[in-house]
Write a structure and sequence with these properties.
Length: 184
């Protein structure tokens, strides 16, 4: 019986488990969202919450502990720079886990784990109704690129379509009878 054993083994050896959870924590911190099995999601969620708590502390020892757990300097910089500031006034609950469905191959339960960072939405002031002139319209990179493509490509001239040739009508009786008679 496994009384008092609080480590989920996840079906792998210890070194594999530590490496897997470190890689998943790295991905979650750098991307902000990962999809994995529910058991792994629970474990990586607790690991990332602990790393964010270390980042909020912010001292050298905490940074070294996080570096030994993640082993990616860019992710540690993002953790201590951006993410720690986002959760500065929050006590726990840095991540959320949602059920995603079942995997087709083996029916394993899948979950999505993501950071609880709220996207700050800045509302633009409403403009008066009416037609906007070209000067007032905001341009984006996509619209600029589309305009450049339109200007760069000359229009192709359409060629008249060739008339369809008359379709051959199949002969009655098929050809099976002739072949059968020839083989006898």
């Amino acid at each position: 019986m496994r009384h008092g054993r609080h480590v989920k083994k996840l079906g792998v050896k210890t070194a594999h488990r530590h490496a897997m959870l470190a890689n998943m924590a790295n991905s979650l911190i750098s991307v902000g969202r990962i999809k994995t099995t529910t058991a792994r999601a629970k474990e990586v969620q607790s690991k990332v919450e602990h790393l964010i708590t270390l980042a909020k502390r912010g001292d050298l020892h905490a940074r070294r502990q996080a570096t030994s757990a993640i082993q990616d300097s860019d992710t540690v910089k993002k953790l201590f720079g951006e993410i720690a500031l986002e959760f500065k006034n929050t006590n726990g609950g840095y991540t959320r886990r949602a059920f995603f469905g079942r995997r087709l191959g083996d029916g394993a339960s899948l979950s999505v784990v993501e950071l609880n960072i709220e996207k700050k939405v800045v509302q633009e002031p409403k403009k008066k109704k009416g037609k906007e002139t070209a000067e007032e319209k905001p341009t984006t990179e996509k619209t600029d690129k589309k305009a450049e493509k339109k200007e760069a490509k000359p229009k192709k001239e359409k060629k008249p379509k060739a008339e369809k040739k008359e379709a051959k009508t199949p002969k009655k009786g098929g050809g099976k009878k002739k072949k059968a008679a020839a083989s006898k």
